[in-house]
Amino acid sequence: MRVDLQVRHRYMQAMGIPVWMPKVQSIPLLPEENPSPTLPLSGKGAREIDSFSSPDKGRLGGVSSDFATLSWQDLRTAVQSCTRCALSKTRTQTVFGAGNQQAAWMIIGEAPGAEEDRQGEPFVGKAGQLLNNMLLAIGMPRETVYIANVLKCRPPNNRDPQADEAANCRGYLERQIALVNPSLILVVGRIAAQNLLQTTAPLARLRGQEHRAPLSGTPVVVTYHPAYLLRQPSDKRKAWQDLLFAREVFARHAPTH
Ligand code: URA
């Protein structure tokens, strides 16, 4: 899907990113903003042929855990009844994930916050609104993607996930990745990126590179967490560059028809 530049302009403005638009005719704002006219950003056709290969793809559907064969419904039930760590005692409810289960793009965040814990859906608070705008700006409206977190339960006072909590939750996320089988994973924030990619590298080193998700081999691009961008709006421009890079990586790997 090619999103009209005017629409993208509007949402870049909503993200607080200053953009220049010519008055008379619509030309690309930046050289790298000119999307390939045939870029299959979303839609069924985007999923039919998998043009990238990974040695791990197919191995138990890319999942090494107890959950490797679970259906969506069984996985959701397993998450809902999970008591693997102490977060089960403090949560209001689990936050499984939401969106298009056949999505070409999957978005992975860190953990539910207060609002997500209350509503049972990822990214529904202020950071979620900004994430929605970022997705729309890049031509992947929220309803076209699948969104999940590293943790399915809210850590008290929004503290960082602990290693054992992330490890206990890992199989759930791996199974979600295998079930969605996206062509691209966009990870938001250092914590989510370090957990997914099993690295201690700082965000600055993780941005701007194409990574691979362990097990599934899915291409992964890392950007800032929208909650960080709300505190540090001057970095929204760099986040926009990350989104353009994500689209480039997707174009490289996505099916051609
Ligand atoms: N931050 C996250 O990382 N995930 C959410 O679902 C909400 C806020």
From TrEMBL:
It is an enzyme of class 3 (hydrolase). GO terms for molecular function: 4 iron, 4 sulfur cluster binding; metal ion binding; uracil DNA N-glycosylase activity. SUPFAM superfamilies: Uracil-DNA glycosylase-like (SSF52141). Keywords: 4Fe-4S, DNA damage, DNA repair, Glycosidase, Hydrolase, Iron, Iron-sulfur, Metal-binding. Residues 96-244 form the Uracil-DNA glycosylase-like domain. It catalyses: Hydrolyzes single-stranded DNA or mismatched double-stranded DNA and polynucleotides, releasing free uracil. The keyword Iron applies. GO terms for biological process: DNA repair. Coiled coil: none annotated. Pfam families: UDG. InterPro entries: UDG_Type-4/5, Ura-DNA_glyco_family4, Uracil-DNA_glycosylase-like, Uracil-DNA_glycosylase-like_sf. Its EC number is 3.2.2.27. Residues 35-57 are annotated as: Disordered. Belongs to the uracil-DNA glycosylase (UDG) superfamily. Type 4 (UDGa) family. NCBIfam families: UDG_fam4. This is Type-4 uracil-DNA glycosylase.
